[in-house]
Amino acid sequence: MLALRFALRNLRRDLKSGELAVLLLALLVAVASLTAVGFFTDRIGRAVNQQAGEVLAADLRLESARPIREEYDAEARRLGLRVARILSMPSVVFHGEASSLVALRAVGEGYPLRGRLKIADEPFGPARVTDGIPGPGEAWADSRLLARLGVAVGAQLSVGAHEVKVTQVLDYRPDQGAGFGDLSATLMINLADVPATGLIQPGSRVSRAVLFAGDSRDVATLRKFLTAGKQPGERLQAIEDASPQIRASSDRAGRFLSLASLVSVLLSAVAVAMAARRYATRHLDSVALMKCMGASQGFVLRQTLVQLVCVALLVTILGTVVGYAAQAGL
Predict the structure, then answer these.
(1) pLDDT band at 308, cuts 50/70/90?
(2) Are 130 and 142 in contact (CB under 8 A)?
(3) What confidence tens digit (pLDDT) does each residue in 6-16 have?
(4) CA–CA dist 174, 179 (Å, integer)
(5) Which helix (H) or strand (E) holds 190?
């Protein structure tokens, strides 16, 4: 207890006299640079995950050419995850005598789980974000399809044996490019309308997918469940598989930032060593005086350690705050 009081008194004296200024500054730069790079790299990682999630429109995606079992949905909901189903296939739509090849996409309630759909009121018009999907009997067509057919919003299109009304122009969907046929014009309908079209027949080129999103730990649990129980022909895709090019660029940027931080730490280490040597030299007389006054070696060691621990705590707190503030401004 005596060593603690003595150490704190000496520490206050050194702080007031400026004895620790150089040492504190060097340590502060080292801690701040490391924490700033760490926080910034974490931000990049989260941004990459978010963008990868938009590529899938989910955190986890299970695809198959065959019907996918409903038990996967039940297990996901039991874990508290959100679930949506979609179906994609090439088809031909008609408007009178005009026709066009399309990538037909039927989406269920909740789609997309990551990212947002964008729609417009007229072809090639200004887009806006929407949280909905086409209702039963409705369709959203992209501008290319409307231009090919020579129709506008409100037109009736024949999709197989079913008629749908174009109510909006589809401008953007998050998982654009994630499946086949994305180079074709797109027509989005409600999943409930698929049976009425009569398009799904033996030999049809249909791609089905179940989307999952939620807490990362629950997603990881579901991924293990699906990996163990998925059927032949079912393909599981997670966000880390969605955009390897983006992730590789992020990793390179993180390594570059870490290297820059390491350089600053090395420079700070030189300054710390010089400041520590100066600090130790200036305290040799104080230690000698304490020994002459009868202080034991253990007492001197304890009070020195207390001072160093206090300095480390102070620098860690201040450096973390400065580092976080620095990366927040980037």
Answers:
(1) confident
(2) no
(3) 666 766 766 66
(4) 12
(5) strand 185-190
